[in-house]
Amino acid sequence: MFYQILQLRAKGFQKSLNSDGCQRLIVLSYHNSQAANLHMTVIMAKLTLQVRTNDNLLDLLAKSESGAWVIAEDRVQRITHVQVINFVGSQMIEGIFDRSASYRKEDNRLVVKFLDGRIVNCNVQFVGQNPVRYI
For position 1, what pLDDT does the model report? Predict the structure, then answer.
């Protein structure tokens, strides 16, 4: 599993791990005088959204977005990366999920926006008809 690691250094904080492996921070005490010494960080597991599409990858890359997908709101908050895979599974766009620019359409499907996208060759197979999965 991949992690983005940030650190917390301040008096009055206690670290513990949740059952899902994510770190939570508990404030034991805090004083205004400690504000200058506060370096807060978070450990967040990498969650990649994979979507399969018939759309032209070059067109999607130019717009920095993929189509609209059925994605639960709780998943949206945890997604860190995006892979938009062509239908045959031979190429994909890899990018950083742009949560702030992604938006929901009237039918509640999420238009997935991404940053730093690039097309790479791959060999990805989707089993079944669901075009959305998480890795």
Answer: 35
